[in-house]
Amino acid sequence: MTACSSGSQEPGSTASPTSSSTGVNSPSEVDALYTKGHASATDKRWADAITEFDQVIALEPGRTLAYYYRGRAYLGLEQPNEAISDLNKSLELDSSLDQAYYYRGRANLDLNQPIEALADLTKALELDPSLSQAYYYRGRANLDLNQPAEAVNDLTTALEMDSSLGQANYYRGRAHGDLNQDTEALADYTTALQLNSELSAANYYRGRIYRSLGQLDKALADFTNAIKLDPAFSQAYYYRGRVYRDTEDFPNALADFTNALEVDSGLTLAHYYRGRVYRSLDQLPEAAADFTKALELDDTLALAYYYRGRVLRSQDQLTEAVADFSIALQLDNGLDVAYYYRARAYESLNQPSSAITDYQSVLATSTTDQLTGLAKTQLAGLGVSTP
After folding, report:
1. How is 271-326 classified by DSSP, letter by letter?
2. What single DSSP character describes residue 43?
3. So what's the pLDDT on residue 129?
4. Can you tell me whether residue 45 is helix, strand or coil?
5. Where do the structural domains in the chain lie, given as residue ranges?
6. How far is CA 34 from CA 19, 41, 57, 75, 126, in A?
7. Which ranges of the chain have pLDDT less than 50?
8. Is CATH 1.25.40.10 the classification given to domain 1-130?
9. Helices and strands per DSSP (H, E), number in the chain
10. Does 1-130 match 220-294 in CATH topology?
11. pLDDT score at 17
């Protein structure tokens, strides 16, 4: 069977579709129903197509293309499980039906089954290498499987065959981004947006690259566009909040982190960075609450313990602060500032020997002249000389 590529004929589109009728039912009756179902599928009247192919299959259970087209109709109605069931049946009856592999691959992708999707799309391309959409969807499957180089290859082939596939530019941009190929990723996102200006995800991912490159005005514009297109885009609020925080626009950062959390309260880093903003605004109880929530979601976040320790120390909860600094250092023993502030807390608790040990740890681990200078000053105050 021929795949549905540009200029090729779809299976079953001939005037007299192949029938495996046993002769019990009238061929003209079955063919008329099949033709009607095929027309409905061609017009994307999916529900009608399903009803009509139900009747065909009831009269002639061995009609391969009735299962194939009903499977496509189910996929059109976003019912991938039902689609796979029908496409499986069509392939049992005719294992050379390349389009059935292609559409089953798409259904598997919809079900977040990229391994199965990859196998199906590869089989479809073995049967018909001219199917540009199969390269596109296989590229997406490779991306889901964290195989960005393979994704780039497939999506590039798809675009060489059909340059109007704007979504292919978007997904190739994602793959280039995973490969740290920022220039190529930016070019792809820009092309994708030229083809479809309402592609919020392209704005979002391009914004993230601009932010990583320090082009904060461009990043801000992209995140803002993404939010306009999708007001429930929690990650866009989160990253725009990061940009606002980068530029010390704390009120707007606070608003964005809050918006992100209203959409998705499980965003660990939104709690963490909102806590950082609250601390910058000297709203210490709110900061402590956010750091605590972040740690409920991820108790391996060393910096959340560290900053909560800073807040607790500012509130004279010194024993609790020492506990937080200690956990932070268990998670990251190179966190030099945690040694320093734990030492300060020990001094306030009148535990000079513990403080001295921590200040000496600062000297052993820190590469920051300012921090080592502060540690030396504190050690001198405790009567300890340093080189």
Report:
1. HHHHHHHHHHTT-HHHHHHHHHHHHHH-TT-HHHHHHHHHHHHHTT-HHHHHHHHH
2. T
3. 96
4. coil
5. 1-130, 220-294, 299-387
6. 10, 10, 9, 19, 29
7. 1-9, 13-24
8. yes
9. 21, 0
10. yes
11. 44
CA distance 51 to 70: 9
Cα 179 to Cα 63: distance, rounded to the nearest angstrom: 46
User: How high is the pLDDT of residue 24?
Assistant: 44
Task: Concatenate the DSSP letters of all residues of 165-210 into one string.
Answer: -HHHHHHHHHHHHHTT-HHHHHHHHHHHHHH-TT-HHHHHHHHHHH
The CATH code belonging to domain 299-387 is 1.25.40.10
> Does residue 349 contact residue 339 with C-beta atoms inside 8 Å?
no
Token look-up 């920051």 returns 368
Task: State the Cα–Cα distance between residues 292 and 28, nearest whole angstrom.
Answer: 72
Sequence-distant (6+) residues with CB within 8 A of 196 are: 166, 167, 202
- Determine the Cα angle at 334 with ends 330 and 336, to 5°: 105
C-alpha 225/C-alpha 252 separation (Å) is 16
Q: How far apart are CA 61 and CA 263, in angstroms?
A: 48
Rg (CA), the chain: 30
Assigned token pair, 203: 């704005």
Question: How much is the pLDDT for 8?
Answer: 38
Burial level of 112, CB count in 10 A (0-12/13-18/19+)? Answer: exposed
Question: Residues for the chain: how many in total?
Answer: 387
What is the model's pLDDT at position 354? 98
Q: Give pLDDT, residue 4.
A: 44
* Alpha carbon distance 202, 170 (integer Å): 6
Tokens of 207: 């914004």
39-56 pLDDT, tens per residue?
999 999 999 999 999 999
Q: Which CATH architecture has domain 220-294?
A: Alpha Horseshoe (1.25)
